[in-house]
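Researcher: We plan to redesign the surface later, but first we want a full-length starting point. Tokens attached.
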């Protein structure tokens, strides 16, 4: 065997130039001399074939052109953890100096006695012992090194970034972590590793671990649950881009979890979420680009709260396939939900006016305080709910709704589409007949006004030009301006100037009136004060 090939080379991770891959074959190749490594590359474009050469299949690849043969001297099998740390933090011995036995140093071919070598090594140890937060990203770490060497040298480490290295198995991660007494944060993303497939003895290496990132490691949910037996204090778990499609109930594990990131995994369907719905402390769930098209909590009826996700405050479902308002209605069943991200779903294209869409979501989810990273102010919520109550008032009447409580019996179909409508009527009173007359339907293309928006109190703020429907209420305009200028929750005061009213400023003082009520025209200037 070639001396440059480790005895455990098969299955090991290697790098060659800037490319990463896994060794799938070690040996000879027909009609060539010497030893070859058959490598399956992470980037199939680096490969040439599927592991076969001249009709002989030497190894298998997932991609038809994902493999190639390289000579062992071209492959980097990596270094141990401490060597990478010393290299990264400039604490390694100079390359042109070799340390010999005892106090001897070799400079090229000349051997010189060096007094105080022990103190140099001790100084280096002291410097490494000061490191709390260590990053060896892309440093070709492949193994732990000598037993207990890490614990002797880096005793105070708390946070380690081991991402994009040459780690081949979870056992290597345990071997490193077990030497770090108070490890709190660990990032091993972008290492394609083998994980245990059956229950193994639980290691105490992660007993204090709070945050773990396993993005792009090819871990399955089953493997997550097996490993999680050794994560008794874990609060944040990042699992994006792992091809996780199905979930299982985390019985007895992950019970301390507060944040779970499953983004960029194509889940089989939205019902997979029911399997993780009883994690008692889960406060933040990130489901960006998971392919889900609907959300449903079948244990709760209209206007009721679900027992699922009892602590969930922040939910991200952006970049998915949600197209029906019923999924937004379902989110109102979550008892603790305060923040929602839902951009880039087909649903967001159902309304031509994005402001109308935002108002509808606010009205449908009663406890929401932040939508798509924008704070929902009390005045904005009140305006959204009042508008919602009016917009769907005629539908409510047609479905059996009535101002007389004894005759008010809206149909199941209406309640399914508008589960919050009864509570809005209780909050603000049923819509009066006068409010519903002459209402323009949402689908009507309202005439757009081109207006200049200025902040006289902030001269450094450049004027902004906006196209707004003339039917837009002053309340909605204020909601837009809160977000546009990132103004705190103080009350906005709006007025406008027109070339037809030289020197005069007209106050926009009724939140429920549309812009057209004030005879605003394109080219006019809206003034914002607070």
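Model: Full-length starting sequence:
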């Amino acid at each position: 065997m070639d001396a440059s090939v480790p005895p455990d080379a098969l299955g090991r991770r290697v790098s060659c130039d800037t490319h990463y891959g896994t060794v799938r074959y070690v040996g000879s190749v027909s009609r060539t001399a010497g030893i070859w490594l058959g490598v399956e590359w992470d980037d199939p474009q680096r490969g040439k074939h599927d592991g076969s050469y001249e009709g002989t299949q030497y190894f298998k690849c997932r991609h038809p052109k994902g493999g190639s043969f390289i000579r062992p001297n071209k492959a980097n099998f990596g270094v141990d953890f401490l060597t990478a740390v010393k290299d990264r933090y400039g604490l390694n011995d100079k390359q042109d100096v070799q340390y010999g036995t005892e106090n001897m140093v070799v400079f090229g071919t000349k051997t010189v006695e060096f007094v105080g070598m022990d103190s140099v090594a001790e100084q280096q140890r002291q410097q490494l012992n000061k490191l709390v937060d260590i990053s060896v990203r892309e440093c070709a770490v492949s193994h732990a090194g000598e037993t207990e060497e890490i614990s002797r040298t880096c005793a105070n480490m708390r946070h380690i970034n081991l991402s994009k290295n040459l780690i081949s198995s979870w056992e290597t991660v345990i071997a490193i972590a077990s030497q770090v007494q108070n490890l709190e944060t660990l990032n091993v993303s972008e290492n394609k590793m083998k994980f245990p497939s059956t229950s193994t003895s639980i290691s105490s290496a992660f007993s204090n671990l709070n945050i773990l990132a396993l993005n792009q490691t090819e871990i399955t949910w089953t493997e997550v649950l097996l490993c999680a037996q050794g994560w008794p204090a874990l609060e944040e778990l990042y699992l994006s881009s792992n091809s996780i499609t199905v979930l299982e109930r985390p019985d007895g594990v992950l019970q301390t979890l507060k944040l779970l990131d499953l983004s960029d995994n194509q889940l089989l369907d939205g019902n997979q979420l029911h399997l993780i719905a009883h994690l008692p402390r889960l406060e933040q769930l990130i489901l960006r680009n998971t392919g889900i098209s609907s959300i449903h909590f079948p244990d709760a009826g209209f206007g009721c709260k679900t027992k699922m996700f009892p602590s969930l405050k922040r939910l991200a479902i952006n970049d998915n396939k949600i197209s029906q308002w019923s999924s937004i209605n379902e989110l109102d069943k979550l008892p603790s939900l305060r923040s929602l991200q839902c951009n880039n779903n087909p649903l967001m294209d159902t309304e031509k006016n994005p402001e109308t869409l935002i108002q509808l979501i606010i009205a449908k989810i009663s406890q929401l305080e932040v939508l798509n990273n924008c704070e929902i102010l009390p005045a904005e919520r009140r305006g959204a709910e009042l508008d919602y109550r009016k917009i769907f008032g005629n539908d409510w009447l047609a479905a059996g709704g009535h101002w007389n409580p004894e005759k008010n019996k809206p149909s199941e179909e209406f309640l399914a589409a508008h589960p919050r409508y009864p509570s809005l009527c209780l909050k603000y009173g049923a819509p009066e007949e006068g409010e519903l007359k002459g209402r323009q339907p949402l689908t009507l293309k309202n005439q757009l006004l081109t207006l200049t928006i200025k902040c006289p109190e902030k001269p450094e703020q450049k004027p902004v030009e906006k196209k707004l429907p003339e039917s837009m209420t002053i309340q909605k305009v204020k909601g837009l301006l809160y977000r546009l200028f990132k103004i705190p929750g103080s009350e906005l005061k709006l007025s406008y100037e027109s070339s037809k009213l030289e020197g005069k400023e007209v106050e926009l003082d009724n939140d429920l009136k549309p812009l057209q009520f004030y005879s605003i025209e394109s080219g006019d200037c809206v003034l914002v004060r607070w």
